[in-house]
Amino acid sequence: MAPQALFGRLVRFPVSVVAAVVAVAVVLSARMTHAEPDFPHHPPVACLALAAVVLTTVLAERSLGSVRTLVIGVGAPVLALLATLLTVTIGSALGEAHAEFAVGQPLFAPSIVAAALLGAASAAMPTQRRWRTRVALWTVVLTLVLFAGHGSDLARALATLLGTAAGVLVVRRASRPDARTTRDTVSARTVVVSALIALGAGTLVTPVVPNPDGVLSLFADAMSDRSAVVTGLLLLCAAWLVHRGRCAGIALATGVLVTLTAVLADVFVIEPMQDGAVQWQGLGLDALEWQVTLLGAWLVPAAVLLTVLALHGRLVRRRFHAAGACRDDLVEMLRDGDAGTLGHMGTWHGNATWTHPGGLGAVAYRVSGDVALTVSDPACSAADRAEVVTAFAAFCDRNGWVPAFTSVHEPIREILAAEGWTALPVGVESVLDVTAFDLRGKKRQDLRTASNRAEREGVHDEWTTFAALDDDRRAEVAAICTRWAADRRLPEMGFTLGGFRELDDPDVRLLLAVAADGHVTAVTSWLPVYEHGALTGYTLDVMRRGEDGMPGVMEFLIARTALRARDAGLTIVSLSGTPLAAHAGARSLVAHGSVLLARVLEPVYGFRSLQRFKEKFGARHEPLWIVVPTPLHVPRVARALAAAYVPGLRPKHLWALRQAHRPASDDRATARS
Fold first, then answer.
1. Is residue 526 classed as helix, strand or coil in its secondary structure?
2. What's the DSSP call for residue 190?
3. Which three-class secondary structure state does DSSP give residue 402?
4. Which of 139, 414, 484, 601 is the most exposed place for a label (fewest CB within 10 A)?
């Protein structure tokens, strides 16, 4: 980067530069080890806190501006410290035990500034990211307040509250969300997972924090350090399993919480009452407060336990069942709405249909593992897309599934990207405008050659449906399709790539290449494309060539389909999507990874050669995306996609893929020699 450009960026973010300089100065000073009162003499914790200050300053300055960042970053912590000091002073004067304990403790910590700025910056985030950030932030803040209980923890909580409120005031849209496109609610799973994380992390933190004084720090007094560590780890494990929608998480959380509740009740309620240590007369404020705290310590895990039991039906991931009965409803919505060129694939076997409660649209999907993969765009009007995708995401969340909008077009990507979702390129669709299609021009030379050859050899096309074929023709079509699949080194792909089974559909048209002697030499299938109740075009699905098919037979069939569509008054013919094809101008690491994977699979599936074949028709390229909630979901979604597209993949197939690359390597070696 040029020095001028670097200087320009530094000038744009002066508060971040100052924060970084101050952080470096603190690290180099001798006071760094005392930066965080909860963890004194722990330099790594202090370094993490200072790094958090710098990162949140950069985040806030980019979204809120320099002046607002400076005002919130200074004002919120100062007000929080003053309020904490006032609270401690008044409480200690009244004899409140926690306030008396906090007298003389350091109240400031760098993490107070970071918490205030992160709370403020969250207001400028898209809805989904905003709520995830706030839930995580408040889980950490409240855990420290309840378990560590130092004055700095109260100041951090107040600073977080003030910073969040300031951010809401600054970013008006955060306080007045559009109800049609956002979902400003916290799910039952999020509440339970946050509570389990708070209990687990707090139990682990209490033995480490010096002189813990939180109202829940009593947990450490009821068990040994080893038991506290085991309990905390089990609760965190249960939180992770519940987050994944596993029944084992519910069982583990229930077992640990029952045990923890019983131990706390025995230590702080049953034994004191048996020993006669519980009395209510002649107690001062601090003694009365401590006694109430002791007697009520078991109520917290008991309340979490009751919450888990009450909501267990909404926490467990539901089993997926493909619902064929909903196909007619989906077909009707495909015709009345606008599901794009790939919408009819949602009617295939193995998919289920979710319908919007208000009847605004439908989404075809299938679940692989714990990921709900949609089949391209939702079937609805353009005006209702945002509401339909938001409602479907909420439906997936209730069922414990991760929503992944697969092979969607740009409008859906834009809606979800505005809400903070992560979009990854998965392919390119070639769409042909047939209103002015013909075979003239140099670019259509290959198409004219194929058509002329078909005429010379007596090959003609036959536009039909699978149901209209006689038994002999069906056998010929089946032989061509099954032979093509048998020749692959890897299993035939599915999900959004159809095969012989998908031909038997009354809405799907077949265009066959028939030789002069009357036998079929090539097969193509075409899915209907509807928009607002009218047929507007077709989408290419199956494309199979027989052993004796003439060279160029596929070019001939596709060109004939385009001409038929033009003559029928239709507007588009889609050549369908090419998986793993690179988007124009894509420079991301994922895009390069897609190109590499396409190169690896080329000897088996021929994605790159398929894309080159489609270039002959002069079609426009529309990017296809997969959109997931966060980057952390990408590995899970990738595994789900692999299982959906190639469900029969086995280790022997990977060996076959390796063998497929050997001839090419040998050919290159021979050429060099």
1. strand
2. H
3. strand
4. 414
Q: How confident is the model at residue 414 (pLDDT cuts 50, 70, 90)?
A: very high
Indicate the DSSP class of residue 95: T
- Residue 214's identity, in one-letter code, is G
- Give yes or no for a contact between 202 and 215, defined as CB atoms under 8 angstroms apart: no
Which amino acid, residue 193? Answer: V
Work out the number of other CB atoms within 10 angstroms of the CB of residue 320. 17
For residue 113, pLDDT over 90 is answered with yes
Compute the mean pLDDT over every residue in the chain, rounded to the nearest whole number.
81
Mean pLDDT across 192-209: 90
Give residue-wise pLDDT tens across range 203-237.
998 888 888 888 888 887 788 888 889 999 999 99
| Long-range contacts of residues 481-487, Cβ cutoff 8 Å, at least 24 apart | 481/523, 481/542, 481/544, 483/546, 483/547, 484/544, 484/545
- d(C-alpha 62, C-alpha 588), whole Å: 22
Q: Tell me, what amino acid is at 344?
A: H
DSSP assignments along 223-285, one per residue: S-HHHHHHHHHHHHHHHHHHHTT-HHHHHHHHHHHHHHHHHHHIIIIIHHHHTT----SS--H
Say what angle helices 127-147 and 188-205 make with each other, to 10 degrees. Answer: 40
Q: What is the CA radius of gyration of the chain?
A: 32
Q: Specify the pLDDT at position 372.
A: 92
Reference 199, options 308, 316, 296, 304; nearest CA is 304
> How far apart are alpha carbons 216 and 53 in whole angstroms?
28
Query: Is residue 564 classed as helix, strand or coil in its secondary structure?
Result: helix
Q: What is the pLDDT confidence band of residue 382, given thresholds at 50, 70 and 90? A: confident
User: Which pLDDT does position 312 carry in this prediction?
Assistant: 83
Across the chain, how many H-helices and E-strands are there? Answer: 25, 12
> What is the SS3 string spanning 348-415?
CCCCEEEECCCCCEEEEEEEECCEEEECCCCEECHHHHHHHHHHHHHHHHHHCCEEEEEEECHHHHHH
Tokens at 566, concatenated:
């033009």
What span, in angstroms and rounded, lies between the C-alpha atoms of 281 and 275? 17
Q: Which band of pLDDT confidence, cut at 50, 70 and 90, is reported for residue 25?
A: confident
- Residue 522 is encoded by which pair of tokens? 């090539």
> What spatial distance separates the first Cα and last Cα of the chain, rounded to whole Å?
43
User: Please, are residues 604 and 488 in contact by the beta-carbon 8 Å criterion?
Assistant: yes
Residue 655 to residue 645: CA distance in whole angstroms: 19
pLDDT tens figures, 624-672: 888 998 888 888 888 888 888 776 555 544 444 455 545 544 444 333 3
Q: Which of 16, 54, 52, 47 is nearest to 29 (CA)?
A: 47
Beta-strand pair 534-545/572-579: parallel
The distance from CA 482 to its chain's CA centroid, rounded to whole angstroms, is: 36
Query: Are 653 and 489 within 8 A, CB to CB?
Result: yes
Residue 406's SS3 state is strand
Contacts (Cβ under 8 Å, ≥6 apart) of 521? 459, 513, 514, 515, 545, 546, 548, 549, 550, 553
Q: Please state whether 401 falls in left (phi above 0), alpha (psi between -120 and 50) or beta.
A: beta
Q: In the 8-state DSSP scheme, what is residue 525?
A: E
Do 130 and 84 contact (CB within 8 A), yes or no?
A: no
Placement of tokens 């897309």 in the chain: 385
**DSSP 8-state symbol, 650:** -
